[in-house]
Amino acid sequence: MSSLPAFDAHDPLGIDDLLGDEDRAVRDTVRSWASDRVLPHVADWYERGELPGIRDLARELGSIGALGMSLTGYGCASASAVQYGLACLELEAADSGIRSLVSVQGSLAMYAIHRFGSEEQKQRWLPPMAAGEVIGCFGLTEPDHGSDPGGMRTYAKRDGTDWVLTGRKMWITNGSVAGVAVVWARTDEGVRGFVVPADSPGFSAPEIKHKWSLRASVTSELVLDEVRLPADAVLPEARGLRGPLSCLSHARYGIVWGSMGAARTCFEAALSYATEREQFGRPLAGFQLTQAKLADMAVELHKGVLLAHHLGRRMDAGRLRPEQISFGKLNNTREAIEICRTARTVLGANGISLEYPVMRHSTNLESVLTYEGTVEMHQLVLGKALTGIDAFRG
Predict the structure, then answer these.
(1) What is the mean pLDDT of each run of 10 residues along the chain (394 residues)?
(2) Helix axes 358-368, 322-347, angle to 10 degrees
(3) What pLDDT is stored for residue 91 in this prediction?
(4) Which of the listed CATH numbers 1.10.540.10, 1.10.3720.10, 3.40.50.2300, 1.10.260.30 matches domain 15-130?
(5) Residue pair 379/361 in contact by the 8 Å Cβ criterion
(6) Catalytic residue selected from 47, 92, 372, 376
(7) Which CATH number among 3.30.300.180, 3.40.50.970, 1.20.140.10, 3.40.50.2300 corresponds to the domain 243-387?
């Protein structure tokens, strides 16, 4: 009779057994890159509220195949959904801002062009974006319309064979460093998507400052002041809100994994701190209440990782529904932020210091909790799926 494997406090359910050799190789490559290029600097970036060298970071991410990695062709890695998820987890274990850079590039901007673009658009934009030579952004959210994109005011009108875009987009990751923007606008034909080169006259992307979350990330407003585009700038296969919403589903899937990366880092920080810090003559980990916190954090963390794996397998099998992505995004972001907050209590006053990663991850997750769909929106998506009744408007 073979002996049981040793209990691993960092993998208590043996989830690694679900991974193949290629899965582990992807995970380890991204983890190594993040450890070398992000972790030594990210607390300083966060404190300064900037992401210096973002273009160099993008090219490095391209060199390891992390940009548009689940897409096929055009220089993309053709990775599985699970492998993409593992990459998101490792990136967000370093910082949510880095995972956001990759998610917006691959799951929003590149995915939109890959899924809805013409062959000419794909050939022009996807190879340099996959290499990190061109950074992309995705313009859907507006100053007055976040959860209700159908109320967008950005408008595109025809002028001869051209299109002329006017409007504003808000809270756009990568905006001021992007070489290309995928912008969604109302038209007389319904909502359409447009590929907008950042050097187009009338296009500007002022950076948003004074953030207390995602500080190691570039966030911008997009201003479109009668931006004139040729007829072939429109995404030919996208009509109506289904286009941008399908892109959001792809990005939300990455968040299901990524949020567990932030939670893992905070759990591990709390576990390490509790075993080393002594109070009343014994390690914090020797007190029942501390052990209860650690146990509860571990349970929710690894349940969330299992959920992410399950959804990833369904996506790879072509069986993942948008409602199931909402299920994962709702659960994992809520549990991740609770894990980070609990970890902060274990660390006491040290939990608010940037010498430790906990408060940085906790404040980042305040954004992750609400972008790509707030808690309430995902509750209503699930509520409609469960009851058959649409409660969004009443």
Answers:
(1) 85 95 97 97 95 95 96 95 97 96 95 96 97 96 73 91 95 95 93 95 94 94 96 93 86 95 97 93 93 97 97 96 95 96 96 95 94 87 91 74
(2) 150
(3) 97
(4) 1.10.540.10
(5) no
(6) 372
(7) 1.20.140.10
CA distance 251 to 183: 16
pTM exceeding the 0.70 threshold for the entire prediction = yes
Residue 360 φ then ψ, to 5°: -60, -50
- Looking at residue 394, its pLDDT comes to 59
Residue 144, pLDDT score: 75
CATH homologous superfamily for the domain 136-240: Butyryl-CoA Dehydrogenase, subunit A, domain 2 (2.40.110.10)
Instruction: Give the residue range(s) of CATH 1.10.540.10 domains in the chain.
Output: 15-130
The answer to whether 376 is a known catalytic residue is no
Report the pLDDT value the prediction gives residue 3, as an integer from 0 to 100.
86
pLDDT of residue 367: 94
